[in-house]
Description:
The protein is an alpha+beta fold and 165 residues long.
Amino acid sequence: MLNQSKNIIFGLAVAGILVAGVILLSRGGNTLGTKTNPSAKITASEQHYDFGRVSMAAGKVNHAFSVKNISLEPVTLGTLYTSCMCTEAFFLKGGERQGPFGMPGHGLSPKKLNIVLAGGEEAVIEAVFDPAAHGPAGVGPIERSVILESDEGVLELHISAEVTP
Length: 165
């Protein structure tokens, strides 16, 4: 009976370690353009932009992120979306502008880009933030994201600001 209890405890411990290992392996290495993913094919010249202090009264602000396929192989860009309804994204390549792309489930649904970015080719993702979108309660620091999904993973770009009246 004692040996059987030890075997059960040992089996549960091994199963727990295996489950934890699978979870850790499945969570790692899925963000493109970061130092933790040296095999990234799509990178951005910068992954964060701080607008500084922005006034609700002054209207929308925007920033262009340059993205590039640093591999020799083509990459298919899929969905472009934002983390909040106060932020829109536009995709610019070869003089063509697509968008706006917004927060899933809040007006601007994610649309498929279905654009192939050839090896070495560059494009621009424009992030547009509306400081007045949340009304008077929306003053203070904000952090928002623009997310680009491709057949190679996910590239996440970030903006921040200090919203004033």
